[in-house]
Write a structure and sequence with these properties.
Elements lengths: L3 E6 L12 H14 L3 E5 L10 H11 L6 E4 L2 H4 L14 H11 L4 E5 L2 E6 L10 H14 L5 E6 L20 H13 L4 E4 L6 E5 L2 E5 L23 E7 L2 E7 L10 H7 L13
Helix pairs in contact: 2-4
The site of one fe (ii) ion (FE2) has 8 residues, from loops.
Length: about 280
């Protein structure tokens, strides 16, 4: 089978009314026109504030449709709301918010088979939400792994499985919660998942857990340099990930296009506390 060239882009945070991050997105669309990967996966936080402003979701969809190659997306907390009670942004995932996301982007979890590989998109925020779709998503994941046959499997999920350690305790909104983490990791081990590709943290990181490569994709939108000494080896730059799937192997590289600008949220946070509270800055075209 021919090698597969895949791009993962994440945390684009697009909005027509708060167009702070449009420039890097425009550059990214040009990059895709030039390199023409076989497929682009968008790993969440596609828009700036879907839970409060559903029109952000529809605008982000129009932006994804500018991509000159096939693409598919999974939701992030800024698209669909976070795991309840969403102690940070106070906009938890609900049935209507999930429905609004699905109206804009289609299914919030799915299976995409490409040339000998099975890519499984997951809705991280649905896990431990108590919503009706939660059990159905776990069933889909198990079925997709069991029925993969000779295909090698990749999971795409907005949040990383953990931040510092698989045994870390507590329910941080930075990563999957312990119960879901344990469940996903057990499935990765049992079904020899080759790669878990996540976003959410706005930095690049690559690590390994058993036979599974864990990749944190950078954002195209902004970086956060407020905690430079959290003990992790992270690349706090904007960019995207380019993957090469060949036979049974997957390689990847962090890409920072020369025309990308690194916007650091540090200055805003002192005054506004959250990117969702930034004043309007409409797209002027
Ligand atoms: Fe984000
Ligand atoms: Fe996020």
């Amino acid at each position: 089978m021919p090698p597969l060239r895949i791009v993962q882009v994440s945390d684009t945070h697009l909005s027509r009314t708060h167009a702070y991050f449009q420039d890097n997105w425009d550059v990214f669309v040009d990059c895709m026109a030039e390199e023409k990967p076989d497929f682009v996966f968008v790993t969440g936080d596609i828009c700036l504030n879907g839970p409060k402003h559903p029109e952000d979701l529809l605008f982000a969809r129009t932006q994804m449709d500018r991509l000159p190659v096939p693409w598919r997306a999974i939701p992030g907390n800024h698209d669909i709301g976070d795991t309840p009670p969403d102690t940070r942004l106070k906009g938890p995932i609900t049935k209507p918010r999930r429905a609004a996301y699905r109206t804009a982007f289609g299914d919030d979890y799915w299976v995409q088979d490409l040339s000998g590989w099975r890519f499984i998109g997951l809705n991280a925020q649905l896990m431990e939400s108590g919503l009706p779709g939660e059990a159905a998503q776990w069933a889909m994941l198990l079925d997709a792994l069991q029925d993969a046959e000779a295909r090698r499997c990749v999971l795409l999920i907005h949040k990383p499985l953990y931040t510092k350690s698989v045994t870390e305790r507590g329910c941080s909104l930075q990563a999957l919660w312990p119960k879901s983490r344990k469940r996903v990791l057990a499935l990765c081990e049992k079904y020899k998942v080759k790669l878990v590709a996540s976003g959410h943290r706005h930095c690049y990181r690559s690590l390994r857990r058993g036979d599974t490569r864990l990749v944190w994709a950078p954002a195209t939108s902004f970086i956060d340099t407020r905690k430079p000494k959290d003990g992790l080896r992270l690349t706090r730059r904007v960019g995207y990930i380019r993957y090469f799937f060949d036979g049974a192997t997957v390689k990847h590289e962090f890409v920072e296009p020369p025309l990308f600008v690194n916007t650091d949220m540090r200055n805003w946070m002192a005054a506004h506390k959250s990117t969702t509270k930034l004043p309007p800055r409409p797209l002027r075209r």
